[in-house]
Amino acid sequence: MDRIIGTYESKDYTVEYSRVGHGTPILVMHGGHSNCYEEFGYTPLVESGFELITPSRAGYGATSPAPLKEAAGRYAELLDHLGIDRVHVIGISAGGPSAITFAGAFPEKVCTLTLQSAVVSKWLMAEHTEYQTSQLIFRPPFEWLTWKMLAWTGTAFPRLSFRPMFFSLSTLPYAEGRHLVEEEDIEEVRKMNCRQRSGAGFLQDLKSPSLLTERDLSRLLCPVLVQASVNDRSVSTAHAYFAKAHIPNAELKFYNTWGHLIWLGRGSQQVHEDAVSFLKAHQEHM
Fold this sequence. Notes:
eight-stranded mixed sheet
């Protein structure tokens, strides 16, 4: 996949970004631990005539840290810098609050919003074991070691290391969900762990959902597609239902994929087809 990496710099901050493909622009708010090198779901969109602009969100990659609303303004400045007036927006996982905030703050720039396995309300709270663990293993500078270890074990023992990743991403026991896993999923998860870094971004992601309100969702004016797996452990189906309940123009679609990474495994083809169909149905508004 050909990818152009660039930076937009002001006197106070930097936004790192990538551009993939040619055609109608999509602004992608990547998930937690990711960056502008994200890949999940990109190929079907590029092959369907879209260009994906992916900033490393605030605190990730080479992008300067910033609070949620301030970061949204920086992404708007990036689009102005690139000469792009209007985009589709995709919010992935922990990038959901960033996508929702951007769409609410800059409705004139947003044609549609797609939320994929997305966080839209309260997520990991201080009393949750996952929250407490994340504060330790994903805090700089320890996060560097965490991802180096995951990358090494995934490369040395790809099949063995896939199972604990499956458990962290799926509500299904492996014996029940393995029929939904395709051979290439193991390699895709390995590559994911090799490109992941938490930077200062993930600790901000843990705070971001609490900054969203039901009013933030109800103010969204554009058409919205919510896509989620019924077997998602990382971001429960409650988030998808919450989005459907509070976003005026939301369409909700569930899939029987094996877990949080809805772009992988059996059932994922429908995810791709629905996303492309939704975007193309609203092309006239670009």
